[in-house]
């Protein structure tokens, strides 16, 4: 799927992500204001940017990563986003997290700038958090939405 006709800016990604704030957590969902999980947030922003999702997401259990042992989320991110060095991630980029060394990466969020992340977490509505050293240590990969035209900036 080509996105060459769509103008994607970091400011637009961040603005769209923030419109999801307060959406209740709901496993496997991706409906702004109704319910979403971490992947659903990224999927929802993708739909708002491009009109449709690049692939159908199969159903998944809460323990999908532990049960499968496969880097399913990482593989999908590599297929649909542009992987970038984690140190270059900035506002509008997607971070992938691994809870502990050797575990499968199973959490995603969207950077709002180097100091902040927006994400959905079980039991908590979509919220912005400070990217503390703990979060940076658990971030294992960074990805850019396809077609982002403006250069990285340090603060939005």
Structural account:
With 156 residues, the chain is α+β, with helices and mostly antiparallel strands. It has one domain: endopeptidase fold (from Nostoc punctiforme) (Alpha-Beta Complex). The protein is 27% helix and 24% strand. It is built from five helices and eight strands. It has helices at residues 10-18, 38-50, 64-68, 72-80, 133-138, and strands at 30-31, 35-36, 82-84, 94-97, 107-113, 116-121, 124-130, 139-144. The strands form two sheets. A six-stranded antiparallel beta sheet has the order 3-8-4-5-6-7. A two-stranded antiparallel ribbon has the order 1-2. β5 and β6 (116-121) form a beta hairpin. It is globular and about 35 Å long.
Explain briefly what this protein structure is.
This protein has 156 residues and is α+β, with helices and mostly antiparallel strands. It has helices at 10-18, 38-50, 64-68, 72-80, 133-138; strands at residues 30-31, 35-36, 82-84, 94-97, 107-113, 116-121, 124-130, 139-144. It contains five helices and eight strands.
- Compressed to H and E, one letter per element, the order equals HEEHHHEEEEEHE
Sheet having the most strands: 6 strands, antiparallel
Oligomer: single chain
How large a portion of the residues is in β-strands, by DSSP E? 15-25%
CATH class: Alpha Beta
Helical content band: 25-40%
CATH architecture: Alpha-Beta Complex
CATH topology name: endopeptidase fold (from Nostoc punctiforme)
- Tell me the number of structural domains: 1
Number of helices: 5
Q: Span between N and C termini? A: 29 Å
